[in-house]
């Protein structure tokens, strides 16, 4: 018992001395701070610094981990992409029959489709028939005639032109008749109905030519054709437009063609 009490007493003294020593040390430190001794960071500030260091360390570790994860993701994506390309190449190079591969079959199919389209377009253009070009001219029996006159300002009237049987008159008449016939036969609207053009006479006044135009039409569509297609206005306007499309005048404003017809001099009326 006495031995135990002595040990406890010694421990108590020791602890008491240590506490007093610590207390005196803290007081001395505080006094040193007051007297201008080196400043000592408080315990709370030291903890904050320790937390900042730990936070920075954690942030650095997080950045490193994020970079590593991104790098791993890129490395994982690249092999996956390459694997898809390789797989497509392998599938295209697979043999279908003997040395025939898949890519060859695909190209052949595209070429075949293109050839079918081209052949279809060619056949359609060849086989297609314009309904307006299919008509039976034997059904066109009803005549419709127009007569009128026009002036040839580049020609000089002679007595031979007034004689219908003279070579000069017949030559000029044949040329003008051919000109008028070509005009109306080439017309999309009037070509099928045109029959003939005739120059009946030449008169003085430079040279004035009297002409006659004859068209034929089917009996079933007489009224419509008379009022629209073969009306005086339609036949006259086709003729006049042709005259305005003739060779342009030279620098002096004159036409150099001998068979030039003055558009202003054109007259036309329906022959009953």
Question: Can you walk me through this structure?
Answer:
With 272 residues, this protein is of the alpha+beta class. The chain is built from seven helices and six strands. A four-stranded antiparallel β-sheet has the order 4-5-3-6. The protein has a two-stranded antiparallel ribbon with strand order 1-2. It starts with a helix and ends with a strand. Mean pLDDT is 75; it is low at 1-44 and 49-58.
How are the SSEs placed, and which strands pair?
Blueprint: H1 2-35, H2 43-92, E1 95-97, E2 100-101, H3 102-127, E3 140-151, H4 159-162, H5 167-185, E4 194-204, E5 207-218, H6 222-229, H7 232-244, E6 267-271
Antiparallel strand pairs: 1-2, 3-5, 3-6, 4-5
């Amino acid at each position: 018992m006495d031995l135990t009490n002595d040990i406890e007493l010694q421990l108590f003294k020791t602890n008491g001395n240590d506490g007093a020593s610590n207390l005196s040390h803290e007081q001395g430190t505080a006094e040193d701070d007051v007297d201008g001794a080196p400043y000592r960071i408080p315990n709370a500030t030291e903890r904050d610094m320790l937390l900042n260091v730990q936070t920075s360390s954690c942030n650095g570790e997080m950045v490193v981990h994020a970079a590593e994860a991104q790098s791993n993701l890129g490395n994982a994506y690249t092999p996956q992409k390459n694997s898809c390309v390789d797989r497509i190449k392998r599938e295209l190079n697979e043999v279908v029959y003997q040395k025939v591969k898949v890519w060859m079959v695909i190209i052949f199919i595209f070429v075949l489709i293109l050839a079918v389209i081209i052949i279809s377009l060619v056949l359609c253009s060849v086989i297609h028939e314009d309904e307006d070009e299919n008509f039976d001219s034997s059904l066109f029996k009803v005549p419709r005639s127009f007569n009128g006159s026009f002036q040839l300002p580049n020609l000089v009237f002679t007595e031979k032109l007034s004689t219908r049987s003279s070579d000069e008159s017949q030559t000029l008449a044949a040329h003008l008749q051919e000109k008028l016939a070509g005009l109306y036969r080439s017309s999309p609207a009037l070509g099928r109905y045109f029959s003939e053009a005739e120059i009946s006479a030449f008169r003085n006044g430079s040279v004035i030519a009297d002409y006659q135009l004859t068209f034929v039409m089917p009996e079933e569509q007489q009224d419509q054709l008379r009022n629209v297609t073969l009306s005086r206005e339609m036949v006259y306007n086709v003729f006049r437009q042709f005259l305005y499309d003739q060779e342009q005048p030279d620098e002096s404003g004159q036409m150099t063609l001998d068979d030039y017809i003055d558009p202003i001099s054109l007259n036309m009326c329906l022959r009953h």
